[in-house]
Design brief:
The protein is an alpha/beta fold. The chain folds into two domains: 214 residues, Rossmann fold, CATH 3.40.50.720; 51 residues, no CATH class. Helix content is 54%, strand content 7%. It is built from eleven helices and five strands, in the order ααβαβαβαβαβααααα. It has a five-stranded parallel beta sheet, with helices on both faces. It starts with a helix and ends in a 6-residue tail after the last helix. The protein binds NADP nicotinamide-adenine-dinucleotide phosphate.
Length: 294
């Protein structure tokens, strides 16, 4: 009797978790089971964010500032960085925010100067968290339509610039015995991404270099930024942020690759078709719908 009760409770818990995963989850189960961001891990720390002039990087800056971090904001567009800074300071005049424009594709010598400038800020405090968020644009088109220029431009920013920046930062972090890298990867760096071959290749390359953090478009940037900070402050080695069906496909490719890659083969052409028609490239229809999708 007791055994039956325990079994029923376990089955109920498993069913609840499965239901939650299928319907309401916007990150992998380890990530969403953690609590809110741990303020004590970032309060007063120096957080350098690339790609902070818009999108997820901008929202990360706002959320890190609200947790008491000292911020260095980087991207190419100085005016946009100043706008983000003003927005943060107008909400909280005590915020410590510095703007450091840079182009990730400018090569090692120029990046050396940028790293030196970043480490000198806040009275030579050094960098506690490097948030690699900047990325080259990611238009959706077939793999064979990609050009040499697109290949170089994508890898210069997403891979070479990001890795060089990391190499330049590591020595001083090791000297100080402190420093974290947070990498905004993508579901496209974990599973095939039909229509985004170059972007996917660049993110797979990054994943080979970093224990990386995953993110995906349809989660709101606020939630994405919040989960990113949860992952960073709880010291998670890897975290997936996405909705269904992308999360389910990621779990399948990771733990049941035969089924996962079979599914991706089934989805591929339909996803390209949906992207060409400006339809939903993340829809369940790609899995369950007919050959042509909208
Ligand atoms: N949004 C999503 O749905 C999604 C999904 C999966 C993964 N991600 C990842 O999350 C990160 C942020 O995505 P997002 O959508 O917020 O990006 P976004 O809106 O396209 O912004 C890209 C940022 O990178 C900066 N940037 C571009 N080229 C640069 C360069 N050469 N040097 C320095 N900075 C450069 C841009 O600023 P400037 O133009 O001023 O330089 C901008 O601040 C990216 O790594 C992306 O791959 C996003």
């Amino acid at each position: 009797m007791l055994l039956a009760l325990i079994f029923a409770l376990l089955a109920g818990a498993a069913a609840f978790l499965l239901f939650k995963f299928a319907t309401a989850v916007d990150g992998d189960l380890t990530l969403v089971s953690r609590g809110p961001p741990r303020r004590e891990r970032v309060d007063g720390k120096v957080v350098w964010i690339t790609g902070a002039s818009r999108g997820i990087g901008e929202v990360l800056a706002v959320q890190f500032a609200s947790l008491g971090a000292k911020l260095i904001l980087s991207a190419r567009n100085k005016n946009e960085l100043e706008r983000v800074k003003q927005n943060i300071v107008s909400k909280n005049p005590d915020s410590r925010v510095e703007v450091l424009p840079m182009d990730l594709s400018c090569g090692e010598e120029s990046l050396k100067e940028v790293v030196h400038a970043a480490e000198s800020l806040f009275s030579n405090a050094g960098i506690d968290y490097m948030i690699h968020n900047a990325a080259f644009e990611r238009p959706k088109r077939g793999a064979l339509e990609e050009t040499e220029e697109g290949l170089k431009a994508t890898f210069n920013v997403n891979v070479f610039g990001t890795i060089t920046l990391t190499r330049l930062l590591v020595p001083s972090m090791l000297d100080r015995g402190m420093g974290h890298f947070v990498v905004m990867s993508s579901a496209a760096g974990k599973v095939p991404a039909p229509g985004q071959a170059l972007y996917s290749a660049s993110k797979h390359a990054l994943n080979g270099f970093f224990a990386s953090l995953r993110s995906e478009k349809r989660v709101s940037v606020e939630r994405c930024a919040e989960l990113t900070i949860v992952a960073a402050t709880h010291g998670l080695k890897e975290a997936w942020i996405s909705y269904q069906p992308v999360l389910a496909v990621m779990y399948l490719v990771q733990y049941m690759p035969t089924i996962g890659y079979w599914l991706m083969d089934k989805i591929g052409a339909k996803r390209l078709d949906a992207a060409a028609k400006k339809g939903n490239a993340y829809s369940w229809n790609l899995i369950f719908g007919g050959k042509k999708s909208v």
